[in-house]
Amino acid sequence: MNIQVFISRIERLSGGIKACNWQFSIVVILYLLVFLILFGCQNLGTKNNNNQVTHVTLWQGINPPVNRDVFNKLVKKFNQNNPGIQIESIFVGEPQIPKILTAVVGNAPPDIFLFDPQMTGKFVELGAIKSLNNWVENLPMKSEIYSNLWDELRLNDKIWSVPLYTSNIGIFYRPKLFSAAGIKETPETWEEFRQVAKKLTIDRNGDGQPEQYGIVLPLGKQEWTVFCWLPFLWSAGGEIMNNDNPNFDSPEAIAALQFWQDLLKSGYAKLSAPERGYDESDFISGRVAMQITGPWTNITKSDVDYDIFPIPASVRHATSTGTGSLYVMKTTPVREKAALKFLEYILSEEFQTEWSIKTGFIPTNQKVSNSKLYQEYVSKKPGLQVFLEQMTVARARPNMAGYSRLSDSLGRAIEAVLLGESPQKALQMAQEQLRLIWNKNSK
Question: Are 173 and 309 in contact (CB under 8 A)?
């Protein structure tokens, strides 16, 4: 590859993920060098030497390891039942984005890649993924998949991936702590939520530092914080985008961020460690009585008492979907066809039943959700029915090419407010800074 072409592609790749960050470009270049050394012969390795078996590579970052084991066992079952296709599931860990971009620029991508739908726009912009529109239209189980999931995976009137799993977030709570505080019903509105958080905040020795807080809020500017806050924006009636432009400083956004800040200023909430809003240790120890998270959490695998209620509403109910998408990368017609065969298996009732029951994720196939076997599983899992019912109000984050830039700006504003800045000032500043570059670079 010509060096100038290479540099141009690196700048284009890194610009969509971390604008104006030369360190990130260096990271991508280093990944490329390692990739060329270790994986440069990947395409040769997947060629069919006997014209009977098509080898397909799949990159994934499934965690925790117990969930990864479930996935790999199901992949093994597919391979046994389809001897003409062999899927090689490769754990690529974190961070995955530099690795996949390195693979694309080095013209040696995997055949299938698992990642968030929010990367769809960037992959489409790079011409790295195959459109699945025609394939999905002829898919036997298309109508069995939750319709809002297809909406999440659609961009420019085309579907670009399929959902391996889905989920959404709610409020986990400790029933014993609720009972000790005299709380008999879970809150449904913001004001009820505020009152419950107040009752659950306890300063036993009167030193001004509660031994127990109502809730932990995620401190940080990365995606987890944005992911947890967006349901409150939507609940207030707001939208993150308006006519294809960022809509940060709306009255609804200000109100939603003010609600979080008020919980902190009142002393009813504590902040997580920076960029550790998903950590459940304070919840499990009883340091906090409520936490925003989803059904994948280790809380469900612990011995602690817990239950779940929906995200409280201001003017409407809403939650964020957490979906994992499988993309078919542009490789060869033979391998692309084999990859699509595997994707059909992923959406099947057989796969989704075993995967969902053993991992805690919500099935993407509604036949599984309604099956007797899955309902028996749900009856044994406190609160799981909440996540199933929230699927009707679940919302997806945008998947256009500029989402990473949008999320980064919004995350910085949320972090600033949690550290004391006024919601109006922080959101207006983020809006103005993003507006300067949005129309030129993000569409």
Answer: yes
The residue written with tokens 């459109």 in the block is: 131
Q: What angle do CA 258, 262, 265 make, to 5 degrees?
A: 135
Spell out the residues 6+ positions from residue 378 whose beta carbon is closer than 8 angstroms to its own: 384, 385, 388
CB of 420 closer than 8 Å to CB of 235: no
State residue 275 phi and psi, 5-degree precision: 60, 30
The model's pLDDT over 322-344, given as tens digits with 9 standing for 90+, comes to 999 999 999 999 999 999 999 99
422, 386 in Cβ contact below 8 A? no
* Residue with tokens 């099935």, as numbered in its chain: 363
CA 328 centroid distance within chain: 19
Backbone angles phi, psi at 56, to 5 degrees: -125, 125
Positions of the chain with pLDDT lower than 50, given as ranges: 1-11, 14-22, 24, 27-28, 34-48, 442-443
Distance CA 230, CA 233 (A): 5
Per-residue pLDDT, 353? 97
- Residue for token digits 């039942």? 81
Residue 424 dihedral angles phi and psi, to the nearest 5°: -60, -45
366 near 144, Cβ under 8 Å?
yes
d(CA 180, CA 200): 9
Residue type for 56, please? V
**SS3 (DSSP) at 391:** helix
The answer to whether 205 and 212 are in contact (CB under 8 A) is no
Q: How far apart are CA 297 and CA 63, in angstroms?
A: 11
Give backbone dihedrals phi and psi of 206, rounded to 5 degrees, phi first: 70, 25
Taking only the tens place, the pLDDT of each residue in 117-153 is 988 998 998 899 999 999 999 999 999 998 888 988 9
